C-alpha cells in the first residue's frame, strides 16, 4: 500500500532532513523550494551534539567534514586591525569544530534526501494556496515563469520555509495579526566579498561604538570569497527598517553603508564590495513564537515555527533535531496527531533554547555601546585568550567538558533505539 503523500514547503535544513526521514518511514514526499537548486547563500554554521547525531545517522557526516570551511579559530581586532588575541576552534571560541557554510550544508542534506525514490524536489516553485478537509489538503503551487497554477492533493503539509514563512501566513494568518513575531532590536546583513590572503585561516571580528560589529570569516583555504556579517544591535535606523519592510535590497545596502562608513579596519573594502554583492541578505532579527505548531493537517518546523535568532546560537541545532523529531512522530501517528505529539515532545526543549543568554542581556554585553565598553571587552578577551593558551600548554583543556551532549544519551532523544524500533514498526 503506498505511503501517505506529504508536501514540504522549503528545501533548507529542516525541510531536507524532514524529507529524508519521512522517506525512511515510507511516506511519499514532495519538496517545493522557491530558489534555484544551485543557489547558495547564507552564513557559516556550526553543527555540534546533539544535532550531530542526526546527521551522522543520515550517513552524511563524512561529506560534511569534507565540505567544512576549515576556519581554524577566531580573532578579535580593533578598528586599526590590531589583534587582541585568538581562540582556536572549539571550546568557548566562536569557531566550532565543524563549521560549514549554510549553502553547502543544505546542498548535502538536499542531495541525501533526493537519493530516495520516495522524495521529489521541485525548485523555483512557490505555494499559492492551501485548503483543508477532514482527511486531505488541496494545495496550489506555481513554478516561476509559468502562468498556470497546479493543484494537488496531499495527506499532510509541512511549512519549513523560514522566519517569513508564506505557508504559515496562508494557513494561520498574517504575522502582525497573530502577534507571533518578536523583534529583538537588531539588524543583520550577510554577503560575500573577494577573499584576500589576510582572511585566512581565522575569522576576524571588530566592534565599533553604537553597538556595531563587522565579522569577516573565511569560506575555505582556496575559496575566492570570504563571508561578511554586519550586525547592528539597535533599532534606531528608520531607513534600514523601512528597507527591510519593503525588501528593497539597494536601500538596505545604502543604509548599512551609511552606518559603517569611515569606522576603520576593513569597512571601506566591505562597503565597496557590498554595493555590488549578488548574494546580499538583510533582515531585522526577530523570534517567532507560535502558540501552536500546527493547524489540522498543516504543521511547521524550523524557523517557521520557532525562529530563535542567531543570538541564541541554537537555530541550526533546533532545525536539525526538530526535523528528526517531527518525522519520527509522524511515523508513529500518520496523520495530524503526529503534529500534536511532535509539539508535545519538543516544545519545552525549544522554549529553553529560545532564551537569549544572560537573561537577554548577553548580546548587549558582547556588543558594547561606547568606546570604553569596547576596550573593556577587548581586555577581557585578551585575558581569556592568554589563559586558554596557558591551559593548552599545560594540557588542562583535556579536563574541560565538551560542548553539547550526544543525542543518543539525551533522555528525550534516544536516536539509535528509536530509529531501529521505528523501522521495525514498533
UniProtKB/TrEMBL annotation:
Residues spanning the membrane: 371-392
Superkingdom of the source species: Eukaryota
Alphabetically ordered keywords of this record: FAD, Flavoprotein, Membrane, Oxidoreductase, Transmembrane, Transmembrane helix
Molecular function (Gene Ontology), one example: FAD binding
Record's keyword annotation contains DNA repair: no
InterPro entries recorded: FAD-bd, FAD/NAD-bd_sf, FAD_aromatic-hydroxylase
Protein's UniProt keywords contain Nucleotide-binding: no
Domain FAD-binding residue range list: 6-331
Family annotation (Gene3D superfamilies): D-Amino Acid Oxidase, subunit A, domain 2, FAD/NAD(P)-binding domain
Protein name: FAD-binding domain-containing protein
Organism (species): Clohesyomyces aquaticus
Lineage: Eukaryota, Fungi, Dikarya, Ascomycota, Pezizomycotina
Amino acid at each position: 500500500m503506498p505511503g501517505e503523500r506529504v508536501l514540504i514547503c522549503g528545501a533548507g535544513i529542516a525541510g531536507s532532513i524532514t524529507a529524508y526521514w519521512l522517506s525512511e518511514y515510507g511516506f511519499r514526499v514532495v519538496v517545493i523550494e522557491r530558489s534555484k537548486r544551485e543557489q547558495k547563500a547564507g552564513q557559516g554554521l556550526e553543527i555540534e551534539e546533539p544535532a550531530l547525531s542526526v546527521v551522522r545517522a543520515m550517513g552524511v557526516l563524512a561529506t560534511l567534514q569534507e565540505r567544512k570551511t576549515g576556519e581554524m579559530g577566531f580573532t578579535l581586532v580593533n578598528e586599526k586591525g590590531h589583534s587582541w588575541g585568538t581562540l582556536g576552534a572549539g571550546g568557548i571560541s566562536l569557531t566550532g569544530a565543524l563549521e560549514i557554510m549554510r549553502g553547502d550544508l543544505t546542498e548535502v542534506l538536499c542531495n541525501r534526501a533526493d537519493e530516495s525514490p520516495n522524495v521529489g524536489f521541485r525548485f523555483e516553485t512557490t505555494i499559492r494556496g492551501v485548503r483543508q478537509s477532514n482527511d486531505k489538503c488541496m494545495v496550489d503551487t506555481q513554478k516561476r515563469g509559468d502562468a498556470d497554477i497546479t493543484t494537488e492533493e496531499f495527506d499532510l503539509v509541512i511549512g519549513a520555509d523560514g522566519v517569513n514563512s508564506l505557508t504559515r501566513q496562508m494557513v494561520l494568518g498574517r504575522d502582525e495579526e497573530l502577534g507571533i513575531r518578536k523583534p529583538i532590536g537588531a539588524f543583520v546583513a550577510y554577503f560575500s566579498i573577494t577573499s584576500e590572503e589576510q582572511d585566512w585561516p581565522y575569522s576576524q571580528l571588530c566592534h565599533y561604538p553604537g553597538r556595531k560589529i563587522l565579522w569577516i570569516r573565511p569560506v575555505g583555504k582556496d575559496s575566492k570569497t570570504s563571508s561578511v556579517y554586519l550586525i547592528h544591535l539597535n533599532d534606531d535606523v528608520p531607513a534600514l527598517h523601512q528597507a527591510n519592510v519593503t525588501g528593497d535590497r539597494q536601500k538596505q545596502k545604502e543604509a548599512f553603508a551609511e552606518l559603517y562608513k569611515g569606522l576603520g579596519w576593513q569597512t571601506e573594502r566591505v562597503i565597496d564590495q557590498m554595493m555590488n554583492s549578488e548574494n546580499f541578505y538583510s533582515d531585522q532579527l526577530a523570534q517567532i513564537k507560535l502558540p501552536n505548531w500546527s493547524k489540522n493537517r498543516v504543521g511547521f518546523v524550523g524557523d517557521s515555527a520557532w525562529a530563535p535568532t542567531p543570538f541564541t546560537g541554537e537555530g541550526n541545532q533546533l532545525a536539525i533535531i526538530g526535523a528528526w523529531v517531527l518525522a519520527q512522530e509522524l511515523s508513529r501517528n500518520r496523520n495530524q496527531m503526529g503534529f500534536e505529539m511532535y509539539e508535545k515532545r519538543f516544545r519545552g526543549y525549544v522554549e529553553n533554547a529560545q532564551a537569549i543568554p544572560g537573561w537577554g542581556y548577553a548580546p548587549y554585553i558582547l556588543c558594547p555601546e561606547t568606546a570604553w565598553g569596547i576596550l573593556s571587552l577587548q581586555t577581557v578577551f585578551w585575558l581569556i585568550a592568554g589563559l586558554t593558551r596557558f591551559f593548552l600548554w599545560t594540557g588542562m583543556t583535556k579536563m574541560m567538558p565538551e560542548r553539547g551532549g550526544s543525542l543518543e544519551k539525551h533522555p528525550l532523544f534516544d536516536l539509535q533505539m528509536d530509529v531501529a524500533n521505528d523501522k521495525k514498526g514498533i
